[in-house]
Amino acid sequence: MRRLATTAGVSICVAVLLVLLLGAGGGGGTYRVRAIFDNASNIVSGEDVKTAGAVIGSVGSLDVTRDKRAAVVLDITRRGFSPFHRDAHCTIRPQSLIGEKFVECTAGSVRTPVLQKIPSGQPGAGQHLLPITSTSSPVDLDLVNDILRLPFRQRLAILINEFGTALAGRGDDLNQAIHRANPALRDTDRVLAILAKQNRTLTQLASESDRVLTPLAAKRRQVGDFIAQANTTARATAERGADIERSFQRLPSFLSQLQPTLADLGRVSDEMTPVLIDLARAAPSLGRFVLELGPFSRAATPALKSLGQTTDVGGPALVHSLPLIRRLGTFAEQANPVSTLLDRVTSSLDRSGGIEQIMNYLFFQMLSVNGFDGISHYLRAELLTNLCSNYTTNATNAPGCSANFRVTHSCPGSKSCPNPGPAAATVTANTPSRKRGKVPKSANPSSKGLSATDIAKQRRASTDRIRSGVLRGSPIYGRGTPNDAVLNYLLGND
Questions:
Q1: DSSP 3-state of 103
Q2: CB–CB of 491/474 below 8 Å?
Q3: Which of 140, 337, 449, 463 has the fewest CB atoms lying closer than 10 Å?
Q4: What percent of the chain has pLDDT above 90?
Q5: Dmax over Cα atoms in the chain, in whole Å?
């Protein structure tokens, strides 16, 4: 409940700040107000426009309306003092003893609508119209003193004598002119109008005031102490009056800068409403969790102390690992293109089924090179039946079957001999001659080749030997068939 109360308090404060911001806020640029006055004497372009003593703009231009009244265009340039509302009011006041004037304005209450723009095609189009009922032009004291001198005194007497004729049938206009000339009368009329609307409330206040004053009379000592403390607070506030005044002067700019933050906060509060509702539902569980967290925190105190000691030991290790971490970071940056390409390759293989095709290729390739008969698996191979099929370590037993594509040399005995070099002549190992550097003519098998009849005989003998081995079969599995020739040959069954 405390958290909910705190949240509600924060929301109320934010709402108050938002209202203040909307009341004092204003967009950038110049806000132009066309104020209509009965008299704008001694006002010129460039004079100040003030609110509570602070300059918020200047007089832009002056004009005369069709009904012979003064139209003063006010350029409001300071942020935070626009727009003007319908209850706004402007008056012309003296700025110095030498006749300078300034326009003092109040922007009005945010509860009332803003001033409407003047439509196009009319004088001052695009400006905001402040009617004559919201302006005043007080008579200066020097003008009042002037009527006591001659000949102004005589002229005033003539005007008063002729008022009966000049003002016949225009009493209302004279009344309005007098009220606009004296702001005190206008404000008095407003106060009396407000009191007239609150007659019933005032009656109730008078009749029920005893009920309010009776409890206060019973606690007159506390009320007196409150007044005394309020006096002390007022004196302290008066001592810091200059600081408070500077704070109020800086408040408009602060509110203008606070406006984006409050707008974001408003959106966050709107989005947080469901979260706060769920949080309110979970508040009892969270309360129990906080209560049960106390024993856990007490039990975790020794572990935290041990963790502090561990950090004392592990701190230097972490410091020493910084170069390695930097190198790993550099490696990660440099490996990023490779990893990106590898990710693309693997993704492409996964989408196109490449990995499955590779596995299928390996599976079927193994099936193609491996066979299975009635005995076991066997390797598929090709049998070459010629004179060179038999394995031998002596080249003299298989003349014409040498697979050497280069000439070699041999050293006599077991002694090592130096390399004769690539250009030196060599002799083969089965050559009768042992003289280094000489190659006998009989060393080349082609010089002493077999005849065609001998080669045919040896081929027939090798074929007959293979066939007899096939017919005999393996002594383990019984008599073989011609289909077992390859397996018997590979297993060495003669």
A1: strand
A2: yes
A3: 337
A4: 14
A5: 170
pLDDT, position 480:
54
Determine contact, residues 462/385, Cβ cutoff 8 Å. Answer: yes
The conformation of residue 184, written as its DSSP 8-state character, comes to H
Both tokens assigned to 326: 């930097």
- List pLDDT tens digits, range 40-77: 888 889 999 999 889 999 999 999 998 889 999 999 99
Distance from first CA to last CA of the chain, Å, rounded? 101
Mean of pLDDT values over 261-288: 88
Residue 486: count of CB within 10 angstroms of its CB: 16
CB 488 within 8 A of CB 473: yes
194-211: average pLDDT: 80
Residue 12 has what pLDDT?
55
What is the pairing mode between strands 101-106 and 135-136? unpaired
Closest CA to 311 of 303, 300, 322: 303
Query: For residue 378, what are its two tokens?
Result: 């066997």
Structure tokens at 227: 């007044």
Q: Are 73 and 60 in contact (CB under 8 A)?
A: yes
Token digits of residue 173: 């206009």
CA distance linking residue 47 with residue 27, whole number of Å:
23
Instruction: Give the model's pLDDT for residue 360.
Output: 87
Q: What is the pTM (predicted TM-score) of this model?
A: 0.34
Q: How far apart are CA 34 and CA 15, in angstroms?
A: 33
Residue 214 CA: distances (Å) to CA of 217, 220, 225, 228: 5, 10, 17, 21
pLDDT surpasses 50 at 429? no
- In this prediction, residue 365 carries a pLDDT of 80
Asked if residues 386 and 462 have their Cβ atoms less than 8 Å apart, the reply is yes
To 5 degrees, how large is the angle CA 195–CA 198–CA 200? Answer: 130
SS3 state of residue 105:
strand
